[in-house]
Amino acid sequence: MTWMCGCYGLVLLVLGVMGQKLPTRDEGLFQMQIRDKALFHDSSVLPDGAEISGYLFRDTPKRYYFVVEEDNTPLLVTLTPCDAPLEWRLTLQELPEDRSGEGSGEPEPLEQQKQQVTANEGTELFTYKGNDVESFISTSSPSGLYQLEIISTEKDSNFKIYSTTTPESDQPYPELPYDPRVDVTALGRTTVTLAWKPTPTGSIMGQPIHYCVVINKEHNFKSLCAAEAKMSLDETFMIAPKPGRDFSPFDFAHFGFVPSENDFKDRSLTTNRALSNKMSRTYISKPKVADIQKICIGNKNIFTVTDLKPDTQYYFDVFAVNTGTNMSTAFVGTFARTKEEAKQKTVELKDGKVTDVFIKRKGSKFLRFSPVSSHQRVTLFVHACLDAVQVQVRRDGKLVLSQNVEGVRQFQLRGKPKAKYLIRLRGSRKGASTLKVLASTRAGGKQPFPALPEDTRIKAFDKLRTCSSVTVAWLGTQERNKYCVYRHEVPESYGEEHRRREQNQCAGPESRRKSEKVLCKYFHSANLQKAVTTETITGLEAGKSYLLDVYVVGHSSYSVKYQSKLVKTRKYC
């Protein structure tokens, strides 16, 4: 079987050789040619027994031709739409009878040859319209010139064609099992487990098969190339026609190129009108990566999809892919809705009282604050003891605050008569989170949380280091508070990562050994520019590393720890 594209110049080849007997497929030559993908793309020649990719402009038909030289030849033509529903029609054309190898050898003009092929509609063998993978198959086809015409009426689109005269021996597509359905075997809030029966192509015939799972929120896909086209508009899935043949400036931009005006100045008026029509098309924007996923999992036929959203419907498709031919077959897809997130008990906050909150890794907690009396503002204190947490506050359903909090933060929220506040705390991905939360409507007065400066770091003075002492400084506030300093010897290998992992910001001085206490003192300054204090810590050993902590103690003995500081004494003095 000899193939050629709807570029009518190639019809000359078919008509010019009709007087000769066309040979059947040379398998050695075929295997050499099929490895050269550029040959088929650049020349638009469709090989017997291989899948090719094509591209259609909307409302612009494309025709492919091939010759079956002997009667009673098996024939299979499979067309796979990738982006949009396609219309395609297969017809058998009558070949001119006066073509002979004994002729003059001078071909007729090209336009006249086109008319000979296209003037006769031929015998219609098969028609189809839709986005299913559809095939025409015949165990005994007559000899003649076959024409395959394809058109996309919705939008520019990709497609794949596979055709062969040896369908029994080729079998490039993986075979589906007797039950081709994908089953949901387990369902959770963020996970779905899928299972399917293996394809006989891999389990019985021993061909190299792997499975790819596609997950999205819109619909099931009928082919892998349809899913891939949805995922990306890059050249992997969009095989473009040759520049200069039927490209427009818009099409260049669509494939990532920005053409200049000079690239098209020689086009005819007719071509320019066609370009104008094509430039008016509207393309659907590229979907976000998170909207659709493709995961290839090897030859396993059970797979658990993770990191899904609760109470959300997802569509799942499984494709068996022959890794030798890179051709695929779709199982019957399924869909499922993940379970709802477990309804959590909302914790009620009391005005002016500290509440301890524990959140599981990647979990969340809801707090409600309902002031009894009218109020002008709400002061919210959040003390994240370990990793940072996300804080969201809604007042009567309206979002008024969304912040990530590390350490201690104080927020001032505008009040409203009879307003209710819903606070959502979302934990860290690294591990569980512990917090202390306080909400108060009391203007002024003593608060259990001590006042803190914006910068809670401890500064060490390198030039003042000795073999037995270090000098440090930290910022204070205008409020008179008690500050306690603690030290703890650590090994030489102790680093910043150890410090972050071990420290609990909410653990107070009561958790420390008495031997680690250095001193406690009161300090404040009416001038914030001068609200800084220094302290020299003595009695240390030469060449040793120490972890220093400063606790500020507020009313009700509630304390907050500054950021720990790692220092080292001089080894030689």
> What's the shape?
elongated
Based on DSSP secondary structure assignment, what is the total number of beta strands? Answer: 32
Number of helices: 10
CATH architectural type of the largest domain: Sandwich
**Average pLDDT across residues?**
78
Low-confidence stretches: 5-24, 33-43, 99-105, 107-114, 234-289
Number of domains: 4
Protein name: Protein NDNF
InterPro entries: FN3_dom, FN3_sf, Ig-like_fold, NDNF, NDNF_C, NDNF_Fn(III)_1, NDNF_N
Pfam family, one: NDNF_C
Keywords: Glycoprotein, Neurogenesis, Repeat, Secreted, Signal
Salient structural properties:
secreted, 4 domains, Immunoglobulin-like, single chain, neurogenesis, 573 residues, Jelly Rolls, 5-stranded antiparallel beta sheet, 32 strands
Write a short abstract of this structure.
12% of the residues lie in helices and 39% in strands. It is mainly beta and 573 residues long.
Protein model, in words:
The protein is mainly beta. Helices cover 12% and strands 39% of the residues. It has 4 domains: 50-95 and 121-170, Jelly Rolls; 182-338, Immunoglobulin-like, CATH 2.60.40.10; 347-440, Jelly Rolls, CATH 2.60.120; 458-568, Sandwich (Immunoglobulin-like), CATH 2.60.40. The strands form 7 sheets. Strands 18, 19, 20, 21, 22, 23 and 24 form a 7-stranded mixed sheet that branches. The protein has a 5-stranded antiparallel sheet with strand order 1-3-8-5-6, with no helix packed on it. A hairpin with a 4-residue loop joins strand 15 (313-322) and strand 16 (327-330). The chain is elongated.
Strand and helix layout:
Blueprint: E1 2-5, H1 11-16, H2 27-35, H3 37-43, E2 50-56, E3 62-68, E4 73-81, E5 86-93, H4 110-118, E6 123-130, E7 134-141, E8 144-151, E9 157-164, H5 167-170, E10 183-187, E11 192-195, H6 200-203, E12 209-216, H7 224-231, H8 249-254, H9 269-279, E13 292-296, E14 302-305, E15 313-322, E16 327-330, E17 334-337, E18 347-349, E19 355-359, E20 364-369, E21 377-395, E22 398-414, E23 421-426, E24 433-440, E25 459-460, E26 470-475, E27 481-490, H10 496-502, E28 517-523, E29 532-537, E30 545-553, E31 559-561, E32 565-568
Parallel strand pairs: 18-20
Antiparallel strand pairs: 1-3, 2-9, 3-8, 4-7, 4-9, 5-6, 5-8, 10-11, 11-14, 12-13, 12-15, 15-16, 15-17, 19-24, 20-23, 21-22, 21-23, 21-24, 25-26, 26-29, 27-28, 27-30, 30-31, 30-32
Signal peptide: 1-19
Pfam families: NDNF (PF10179), NDNF_C (PF19433), NDNF_N (PF24354)
Domain Fibronectin type-III: 174-328, 450-559
